[in-house]
Amino acid sequence: MNNRTLEQKNPKGMTLIVKTITRLTVGLILLYGIYIVLHGHISPGGGFAGGVIIALCFIHLMLAFGREVALKKISQGVVSVLESFGAIMFLSIALLGFWGGYFFFNFFLHKGKPFELFSAGIIPLCNIAICLKVGAGLFAIFTVLVLFKGLGEKG
Asked: What is the pLDDT of residues 80-139, one digit of tens each?
């Protein structure tokens, strides 16, 4: 199937150039967001920044191809579950530490040591939880805004 056939099949969205560039860059943006989340304990970044980058990956799809294509990749129900899971995971980490004697106490995992990559304790887990909460939340907000814009055009 060539690009002209795809353009005729999915007339919504932006031009062929934008769609082609989106196809080439979305995977790299997603990979970069995952990198920021997983290496946030050693470099600036972490859960919030990585979550924003991952959400922008799906927002980029929505802007280029239309809402339907982006929601085929990740549905609104999955986004809701991921956001809830991120909040529950973050709260669980905090409470397990609290029951250990301190709020956000470094339970079960050894504390970080300088110059050791895998010694960050609970920080990577917190980054993943924040990433899920922020990424899913931003994507859900953008989806609702796109839905309201679509309702305004029909009325």
From this structure: 999 999 999 999 988 887 787 776 666 555 666 666 666 677 788 889 999 999 999 999
* Cα of 101 vs its chain's centroid, Å: 32
- Return mean pLDDT, the chain: 81
Q: d(Cα 88, Cα 93) in Å, to the nearest integer?
A: 9
CA-angle at 140, arms to 144 and 65, nearest 5°:
75
Structure tokens given for 148: 């309201």
Range of the domain at 86: 3-154
Alpha carbons 50 and 135: distance in angstroms, whole number: 8
3-state secondary structure 54-103: HHHHHHHHHHHHCHHHHHHHCCHHHHHHHHHHHHHHHHHHHHHHHHCCCC
Burial track 102-119 (b if 16+ CB lie within 10 A, e otherwise): eebbeeeeeebeeeeeee
- Model pTM score: 0.77
CA–CA separation, 125 and 84 (whole Å): 15
Domain count, the chain: 1
The sign of the torsion formed by the CA atoms of 29, 30, 31, 36 equals positive
